[in-house]
Structure formats: C-alpha cells, structure tokens
Specification:
Helices cover about 5% and strands about 35% of the residues. Strands 1, 2, 3, 4, 5, 6, 7, 8 and 9 form a nine-stranded antiparallel sheet that branches. The two termini are about 25 Å apart. Bound molecules: zinc ion (ZN). The site of zinc ion has 4 residues, from loops.
Amino acid sequence: MVIGLVIPQNLKMPVQGATAADYHPNSFWFYPWGKSITHKGVDIFAKKGTPIHSAVRGIVLYSGSIKTGGNVVLILGPKWRLHYYAHLDQITTAPYGFVSQNTQIGTVGNSGNAIGKPAHLHYSIFTLLPYPWRIDSSPQGWKKMLYLNPIEYF
Ligand SMILES: [Zn+2]
C-alpha cells in the first residue's frame, strides 16, 4: 500500500505552454512568505488570460471567490489529493463536475492577494492521507506531511 502511495502521479502542467522557465525551482516552501510563513505551492507565471487545465482527472469540489486566493478552484484527484488553483482571472468550471487533464478550469490572473502583482497561477497539492516521513526541520516542516511539491511531478 505504501508503495502505491509514493508512485508519482501523472501530472499535467496546468498552465498552457508553461515550462520550467516560468516558475522558480525553489518556489515550494519558499521562506519567509508573509502570513503563510512558507509558500506551500508553486507560482507559475504567464500572461493574464492564459488557459489553465486541470493537472489531474478528478471532481471539482469548489470554485468561487475567497479573500486571499481570489478566484479559486479546488479539485479532488487520485490518491486523495486536493489540487488548489488560485488567483485565477476567470473560472470556467463548476462544482461537482468531473474534469480530465484536457478540461479547462479557468485562466491565469492576479485576483485575491495577488492584485497588483504579475499574473500567475498558484498551484498547491494537499494530501488528505498524511505522509509523516516527509517531515523535515525546515520552518513549518511538519506540514510537509500534508503539502506535496508540484514541481517534483511536472
Ligand atoms: Zn503562490
């Protein structure tokens, strides 16, 4: 069972046309990161309006507007992992719909606390099954049992 959990998932780069040049290799767990203390995802920069596709197949649990994330989409994918997309310009999906890696869920923007900053997608992967062996001594290192580094899967 443990082996099943550590097999890499098949992730599709969610920002259309983006490459490794469009995010910082140390974006994940960047410190210090304001109120969040550490940055629990990756920021992928692209022109405002660039299409965003789901990185995995799954079901949309939430799409809407929240204070810090702005326009956000939350998708439950394989292995009980939640995929969080934030700062969208437009949302083009709705809750309880099934998505594939070909489904456009929105466009890149700078909504929420990214207003005034360059447009980018904040993308996080949160596992509902904790991976305690990933805990390390970095700031908030215990939370690494819950947040996975998307860059490892691109
Ligand atoms: Zn971010």
